[in-house]
Amino acid sequence: MKRGFLNGSKVKKEPLYPGSETSSGAAPPSSTNDSGAKGKGKEKEKEKPAPAFTKLAYGKVDKIGLPENYESPEYTRLETDPSKTDHPSDLLLMTTIPPRTYEGPDDPDGHSEWIVLGPTKAKVLNHPQYPKPVPKPIPAEGADGPAFEIRDTPDTAMSKGLFALRDIKVGQLIFAERPLLVSPRNIGLLGATYIPEGRSHDMNTIQAVAMYEWEKQLEVAVGRMSKENQKAFKELENNHKEDGSGPLLGIVRTNGFSIEEIYDGEERTDVNSYGAILKLGSRINHSCLPNVTYNFLVPSFSFQFFAQLDIKAGEQLFFSYCEIEQSKAERDAELAPYGIICNCPVCAHATPETDALRKEFKKRTRQYTVKIRQWISEYDSAAGAGAPEGAGSSKGRLNEDMLQPILKFREGLLGEGLKYTKEYKAIAWNLHLFYEKIGVYSKSKTFLEEHSEIEEATMRGASSL
Ligand SMILES: C[S@@+](CC[C@H](N)C(=O)[O-])C[C@H]1O[C@@H](n2cnc3c(N)ncnc32)[C@H](O)[C@@H]1O
């Protein structure tokens, strides 16, 4: 099964710049950059090396001015040969993927502007399956064009969103697209390094300089886009108009998807990964009952968006910006920096029981699986030992009443919109086995069919790639 599909994507929607949500904007440096300067007073603070990772608060932060007489460093990052892969390891490039040539036509699936370290670019271009075309949804019978449109939502706080134009079956690829822009999540790669000698290295200054310098880089990257993509980029929502972010950085901070698959170095960490801005995907709003999931494929350098539930024509498409295995209070806390107060159906009906179910459904699925398998195996051993059937026998002890907590758990999963998960699928399979064993064949068949339906939806998603 494709990673992330129908099981909560590994590509988590998260603020591009995770960090403090205080209003001071003085986000603490990451622990990797403290260099022992903690608690050693102002003098030591000044000597502290610039952090390798500048965290920006996602929520509202104070506008922080640039240091007095700040002079921007001179640097050029315009690349001459986009297909070159042997760049120095610390060179931050401004490139386009797939590479664009002066003479040749544009790639029919579009191009992404990409701010990237040389070796990371090489990793993608040298990927054994790169390049591949962007996957296309299978056209619906008798229907032309996309299965969705962008339009205003009835909720003014949400602004625009994506809405289905026709019924979409669970597992279907709804659309796939190359990002408009991919850039490092660590904007400290620029600004922090360039604070002039002798100037204060306090976090406010570092952050202000990093934001200023990053905006300039974004101006170059956005300026390299086609006119159509520039327009799409600049029309995206910007919730960072008053915190010192420039207009382009504000858009990046509001609309970023974190990409799990692209990172600098050997292992992905918080400080070396990349974020993407999408023309369509960045228009999808949040719900804790998501009907869409997505992933990123390196060979086609594209995001795929799949239906995670059956979607009816007219319904809005949603994915979850937060982890779904959390209580409502925890989800609220994770969403607060986006300024989102979630009113989705599962939030509106959250209870201590639904909170517990969300937090524990994976563990409980494992426990119930073990339990049903154990009952069946005890039954089989006793039957094998020739125990007579009837009351008191092993067969007599296998009865539907034993399933009550498991059937209630299953209802809970359905209520929370967790049907198309591998946990629900496992429960359906185990119930099928149990009912078959006790000879209640109609129910056994029902659960087998449910299992097959989920399996089929999964395969549909995987086969559309
Ligand atoms: C990536 S954008 C989503 C598309 C955006 N609505 C638009 O008009 O382009 C993220 C922003 O949309 C808004 N948003 C997304 N989901 C929301 C929700 N469930 N409730 C309220 N606002 C939401 C928030 O302002 C959030 O910062």
UniProtKB/TrEMBL annotation:
SUPFAM superfamilies: SET domain (SSF82199). Residues 1-91 are annotated as: Disordered. InterPro entries: SET_dom (IPR001214), SET_dom_sf (IPR046341), SET_domain_protein (IPR053185). PROSITE patterns: SET. Residues 20-35 have a biased composition (Polar residues). Residues 40-49, 74-89 have a biased composition (Basic and acidic residues). CDD domains: SET_SMYD. PANTHER family: SET DOMAIN-CONTAINING PROTEIN 5. This is SET domain-containing protein. It comes from Gymnopilus junonius.
